[in-house]
Amino acid sequence: MVLQLHVWGPAFGLPSIDAECTASVAYFNRIVPQAHWVLVADYDTSISPQNEYPLLIDGSTYVTGFTNIVSHLRNHHSGAYDLDYHLTSEQQTDRTAFVSFLQSAATPLVDLSLYVSSENYSAATSSSYTAILPWYLNYTIPPTRRDLARSRTAHLGLSSLDVSLQRDVAGPGSMSLGSDFEAAKRDAGIPTADTGAQPNMLSMGRGKGLQGFLSSPIYAARFKLDTLTNELLEPLFELLGKKDYLLEGGRPSSLDCLAFGYLATMFYPTLPQAWLKEALQLRYPRLVRYISRLREELLGREDIQAADVWTISSSKTKNEASITDTRNSVGLRLPWHPRSARPLHTTLKRATDEMVSNLPLVAKLLPQDAVIQASNTNISTTIPSSLPSPILMKTLRIFTAAIVGTFTGIAIVHRRNPRDGDLIFWALRPGGGGLGEAGDLLRALAYQLPR
């Protein structure tokens, strides 16, 4: 049976705009014969258990995510598609550790570079989605994925990259992070890359001075970005050493495929704020050579164009010979294949749902399901929330506030009007205990609690 690999469409000359999708394509192209799999540039995530790509369809089995796909191929095809079969037990352990490290350290950097940075998003990411999505999904999928990237990187404190929120006066695209960085240096009297003037770091009467420069948001953002970049690239640089591959010098592993997916997504896009590419070129040239070598070995040197792939993926033909001829005519070597035809009413329903669900007021009224994936399985499930009812929680908060307020008031009165002897707190009886309206309120709230 032919395996189907569904991915987000191509961008930046790579098979996909998504790092793990590119890694999955590299893995398949390396180990699975082309006669046994097809590659589909898709956008209808409703077919995926987790509403995300990459997605592997193997008969009636649906598997999402790079690590789950690799595990499925290893366990369900008698090891024929296991790219890690040659690794020792120690190398297998290292592979597992570095796969987790890559996903946790590289994902925020890609998020910051392609989505959080307003200039990069406007100049490259948004237009890349336009080339791989139907018109109606351009209003929903890119903003949704950008919001997800913002939420994943909020803890890093780099929202200053989002100039749509931070710099409305200057307007988007007016200055890049690099130009702002150089401007801050000039204001501080520090020589920039395009000037040969002598430094004037101690001239506090002119510009901001060194202290002002070091405390500027632009410097702080660039410093933190460089730190995050080094935390990812330095361990990979040390692991690679002088070998051709990360774990074993003679042949690539699944770790090399995943590393290529992330590093290529950092290196190949042409962006106005290209700090990731600059870091690779200036400080880690060996990793740049590693990326170039893997691209040739895993994918070939073809520069994949979204328009060429769209021609194939949107084709209505079922004839394999015709599909192959179309691929050859545009010079595509990967086994791109048309998307499965969806009924017209399904397409219209999806378009309507996407647009309605993103209306500001309507989106808040629609019920939200939590989709989770069980550990060590490839089956996702939707479960109802186990959290208490919002009405119950609100009632409990009011009740607690009333109790705390009552005792606080008694303590304040006693402090202002001290008396001799012990202070006795009488138990509140059903009649309100002499508290009047406050007692009636407490009694009414008590009746609302579940018994």
From TrEMBL:
All copies of domain Mitochondrial outer membrane transport complex Sam37/metaxin N-terminal, residue ranges:
21-146
Q: Residue limits of the Metaxin glutathione S-transferase domain?
A: 231-293
Query: Which Pfam family is an annotated match for this chain, by its short name?
Result: Tom37
Ubl conjugation among the record's keywords? no
Q: Which UniProt keywords apply?
A: Membrane, Mitochondrion, Mitochondrion outer membrane, Protein transport, Transport
Q: Which GO terms describe its cellular component?
A: SAM complex
Where is the protein found, in the record's own terms? Mitochondrion outer membrane
- State if Mitochondrion is listed as a keyword: yes
Report the record's Gene Ontology biological process terms: mitochondrion organization; protein transport
Predominant location: mitochondrion
Q: Which InterPro entries match?
A: Metaxin_GST, Mito_Protein_Transport_Metaxin, Sam37/metaxin_N
Q: What is this protein's record name?
A: Mitochondrial outer membrane transport complex Sam37/metaxin N-terminal domain-containing protein
